[in-house]
Each structure stands twice: as C-alpha cells, then as structure tokens.
Amino acid sequence: MSWNRLVRFRPKSNPSSILLGEPVDADQDVGNATRNGESVSVNVYSGTSVLDAGSKTDKVEEVERLLSPLAQSEVGSIRCIGLNYVQHACEAKLDLPSVPILFMKPSTALASPYPAPSIIPAATKSEDTCDFESELTIVISKPAKNVPESAGLDYVLGYTAANDISARKSQFAQSQWCFSKGFDGSCPIGPCIASARLVPDPAKLHIRGFKKDGAGEKSGEKRVMQDDGIDDMCFSVQKLVSFLSQGTTLPAGTIILTGTPSGIGFAREPKEFLREGDEFGVELLPGVGTLWTRFEDEKV
Question: How high is the mean pLDDT in each 10-residue block of the chain (300 residues)?
Fold first, then answer.
C-alpha cells in the first residue's frame, strides 16, 4: 500500500470524470475544506478504485466535488452494528449485548459527502424523527471468511466516517431495523479513506458529531452532539471482522458501520431531530476528517 489517505472525486478540470488520489496537504481536513469552499489539491493515482489504487502519477487536480470513497457497485450489502458503545447503551437504558447486533443496509443507501444532499423520505416526513448516528466505518481489503480475532486487522484496508441516518418512529415500530435505516442515501460515507497503515490502532481514534440547524434561534451554530473515543466500543474492530466473517464471506469492498456513541437526537431532552436545511458533520480524527451532509425533504 503506497498511500495514507485517498479521496474519490470529480476534478474541476473535467467534472464529468471521476478520479482517485491523495490530498497534497497531509493534514488538511478535506471534508471541512470542501464544505467551506476551500481548495483541495490532490495527487492523482492511476487506479479507479480504493481497492486497487494503482500508483501515484505526476498529475495534480483540484477537487470540484467529493464522492463517497467507494461506489455503490463496490460495497454490496452494508453491514451495521447496533448498540456497540457502552455509553450509548447506558443512554438507551439497555443491557450491553453479549454478541454484536447486526443489521443491514442495501447498497442503494450509500451516499456521498456534501454537497450531495441527504434526503428525508416523504414516507417518514410526518414522523419528524430523522436522527443522526456518527460512526467509524471499516473497509475490508480482501475476501474474509472464518477470520480469527487475532487476524482481524489483517483484512482491513482502512477507515472512513459514516452517518447511519435513521427514522426513529419507524425503527421502534418494528423488531428489525433494515426498513428504518435503509432508505436511499441513508448511509453517507467519507470524506476520505485513511489506510490501516496510517491508523494501526483504530481504538485510538476519536469521533464527534456536529449539528447545524438550518432554521430557528440556533441556526448556523455548530453544536457538538456526540463526543467519544473509539475505545468505548463494546466490540473492537478485530472482533467485528472476525464475528461477521464466521461462515460468511466478506468480499473486498465490504463496509462495516461499527455503531454510534451516546448523544443521539432521540435520547436528548428535548429531542434533537434533523429537518430540511439542517447539516450534520461526523468528525473522525486523526486521519479521516469530517463528513458533512445537508438534509432535504424528498420532493414527490
């Protein structure tokens, strides 16, 4: 692996094309930069996928639009883990699980960072319970099956951030969560993928979630909603890779959302849900940066 961080993007020189590359500034938070209209320069790689990035070329391009680090065609069924942070289980007043709780999102849930919008489905608009979940996301590097926990990190290509956007009323109306968490665009990921080489110990990462209201007295104010270390997870990255691979092949490109820390909107008093015009940022440091998305109502 020759790279530390990769972005998939449309360049200003040819916005109809899709390129892959490494940000020139190793310390730049490309998510914050693109959200703020700042320039992001990228050393272009010869490959077209983070799964086979190729080699660094002599080309440097400016980002016109960030895309999700992987395409829908690469991720397959998206694995998600529920109730995987100690403090989140406490706020939900639930016992810690004895084994990881798995649910799935379809590949059509995958979405890109800002300026791509996150759509609140018309079917759930009347519920007014669209909620956020900041999550560390694992990207699998090679087919994994029956992996021992001790070898779990050997199958990790890198890490990115995700927002597991959820319709809470629909979620609590059913015992299965796939419907309420599987809507189109309900899984934005990005802004980049940080390699396993850059992040040798994911437990040392820190995650925060920010909300900016689009209207009301707090409009435009960046408020911290979630703030926790990855070491608060009940089940580690290597444990999750091992558990999910038992009897089941995880193809290269599989992404695993590892659960959310405490601070979700539903658990707050008063409750804090997402509405049209709101923005939410998932910050994962060091290495990944901030995934921003802006929420819009579905137009039907």
Answer: 95 98 98 98 97 98 98 97 91 88 97 97 95 98 98 98 95 87 96 98 98 92 97 97 98 98 95 97 98 96
- If you search the block for the tokens 């109730």, which residue do you land on? 83
Return d(Cα 300, Cα 184) in angstroms, integer.
Answer: 14
Cβ neighbours, 10 Å, residue 293: 28
Helix (H/G/I), strand (E/B), else coil: 140: strand
pLDDT given at position 295: 98
In the chain, DSSP assigns E strands to 5-11, 19-23, 41-45, 56-67, 78-82, 101-105, 110-111, 117-120, 130-131, 134-140, 156-163, 166-167, 187-195, 206-212, 222-229, 255-257, 279-285, 289-297
Instruction: Give every CB contact of residue 207 below 8 A, 6+ residues apart in sequence.
Output: 134, 135, 136, 161, 226, 227, 228, 229, 230, 261, 282, 283, 284
Report in angstroms the alpha-carbon separations of 162 from 90, 99, 109, 219: 22, 22, 11, 23
pTM: predicted TM-score of the whole model, two decimal places: 0.96
